[in-house]
């Protein structure tokens, strides 16, 4: 086939963006960062909450993220989880991350996963919508939003804090007695898709990934072209053009373009070809570098959205991974 859609697909499949940081430097950065948190207690706390669902246990769960900010979430478990011997059996678990400025929502947002018989941990992202605050001290001014916070310093940036939070969300889920830690997926769309990818790249406990229209991909391209949260950094650079290289250096540490080789779990990704937020080039730049088992679903006529068709694909993908 040689129609426009087929040609565009071939262009994306062949898209190859150069890495933006030395791999040894990146590995050393993350090995040190993860080691510094390996022994820090999660301090997971659970408190029963009212459930709108018969047969589902809903708890408010908090754990300690980066800089000891308590990260708030829902932990939900279908009550009927009997194994062949009649005893309670541990369940596969999905860890859900929200889009930018959103939160974990009400428990009923996550009903489709509970209907599959999975435990669910749905978490806030620090400082954004929801109950979770942000203890990260700002060392300088920031433009509207969050992502420009300390953007000149990789190890103390907002990106660093929310990434460590996401990595520790996986640890918090794996530590729950109702969870089968050998069946643990990270799931999200947009910002949530980016966090699903980076949490899996940095936490080997993740066994499956669903990253719909993800951000944190090919971020140098995004800051130049995207209408996403990266516009906050574009605004910062409009004011301070001399900071370009420092900002790009920070972004390189959190760009899945560079972290793709660390992804070991099977991954399902989706992309809308008309998406001005998480643009097809950014997503394919990462997808093309992932070496684990992978599938991407193309939606040539979709923008920044996750369709009902893709919701079904997510369910079918995890059903296969959790068999």
Automatic annotation (TrEMBL):
One of its GO terms (molecular function) is carboxylic ester hydrolase activity. Substrate binds at residue 100. It holds the Pfam family AXE1. Residues 11-317 form the Acetyl xylan esterase domain. The active site is at residues 190, 275, 304. One of its GO terms (biological process) is polysaccharide metabolic process. Gene3D superfamilies: alpha/beta hydrolase. This is Acetylxylan esterase. It comes from Paenibacillus rhizovicinus.
